Amino acid sequence: MEEMKKEVLLLSEYERKEILRNRIYKVLPVISILLLVGLWVLASSNPASKFPSPAEVWERYIKLLNKPIKGLGLMGHIWASLQRVFIALGLSWALGISFGILIGWNKKANAILGPIFTAFRAVPPLAWVPLVTMWFGIGEFPKVLIVFIGALMPVVVNTHAGISNVEKEYLDIGTIFNANNRQMLFEIAIPSALDAIFAGIRNSTSAGWMVVLAAEMLGGKSGVGFLIVRGMDSGDYPLCLLAMICIGIVGYMLAILIQLLERIVCPWTVRKSV
Predict the structure, then answer these.
(1) H or E element at residue 138
(2) How far is CA 102 from CA 31, 158, 194, in A?
(3) pLDDT score for 192
(4) Are residues 162 and 195 in contact, defined by beta-carbon separation less than 8 angstroms?
(5) How does the average pLDDT of the chain come out, rounded?
(6) In a 3-state reduction of DSSP, which class is residue 146?
(7) Is residue 177 within 8 Å of 136, Cβ to Cβ?
(8) Per-residue confidence (pLDDT) for residue 177, from 0 to 100
(9) Phi-psi group of 236: left, alpha or beta (phi > 0 → left; psi -120 to 50 → alpha; rest → beta)
(10) Helices (DSSP H) in the chain: which residue ranges?
(11) What is the pLDDT of residues 56-80, one digit of tens each?
């Protein structure tokens, strides 16, 4: 009886510590944001500094609402960037997952196409900008193409790794039950590799968001990257910082969106952070 009481006391003590720990984890993000804002205020309080203050950035946001740039407000420029990213991501996921499965499952395809992909993989996405610009100009298609190239590589790499590293025990079980090659691929290998595939999707989303901003900074008339260039050229530093803040917020929201999608498709995957 006494031992049971001790176990109950230990359990309740553990539960209290766990509750306290969870509360601390919920408060820590708020504290980190407050510290960041405090550093921002401190950095902008120096009269000799050209770093814009929170008030100046807010005023620039209000001004942008009343006086759009190139006919677009802040949300319009964000949506312009997101449209390019969504189109490129859809294409890169479809082609990247298919190609990754091909070279991960088929040894002949991997022997023929693997080295070519490895060579192109080593080329940074922005290195394609001069060629893409020379071939297609500076319209919408080149920007989407550059984002597609940047988002394709992580999907292919992770899908290939997931398919080629399927546990041998799973395949042996399929062999025991007389599964054919198609069943082994679609009912065993691909479901087993979903975690790796979603890791590639997460990486490609962040890569695509970064690449589109760089592409817009190199040439464009809309988008968040364009706002940074516009602010830099005109000495409008609050506009630059406002665009940077929007980049961080949208990137965080995209990460949450992919996390929710992963939880729907892979409910067995539990992730406590984005």
Answers:
(1) none
(2) 47, 13, 15
(3) 82
(4) yes
(5) 81
(6) helix
(7) no
(8) 72
(9) beta
(10) 2-44, 54-66, 74-105, 107-121, 129-136, 140-164, 168-176, 181-183, 190-192, 194-218, 224-234, 237-265
(11) 889 888 888 888 888 888 899 999 9
What's the CA dihedral at 209, 213, 215, 221 to 10 degrees? 130
Model confidence at 178: pLDDT above 70? yes
Residue with tokens 């942008």: 64
- Dihedral, CA of residue 76, residue 80, residue 83 and residue 88, to nearest 10: -160
Please tell me the distance from the alpha carbon of residue 217 to that of residue 222, in angstroms, as a whole number.
10
Alpha carbon 3 to chain centroid, angstroms: 51
Contact 156, 200 (CB under 8 A): yes
Is residue 185 within 8 Å of 101, Cβ to Cβ?
Answer: yes
**What's the burial of 161, exposed, middle or buried (CB within 10 Å: 0-12/13-18/19+)?**
middle
Residue with tokens 């009481």: 5
Long-range contacts of 235-238 (CB under 8 A, 24+ apart): 236/60, 237/50, 237/51, 237/52, 238/52, 238/56, 238/57, 238/59, 238/60
145: pLDDT strictly greater than 80: yes
Give which of 251, 186, 259, 239 is closest to 213, Cα–Cα.
Answer: 251
| CA atoms of 185 and 195, how far apart (whole Å) | 15
> Do 108 and 167 touch, CB atoms closer than 8 A?
no
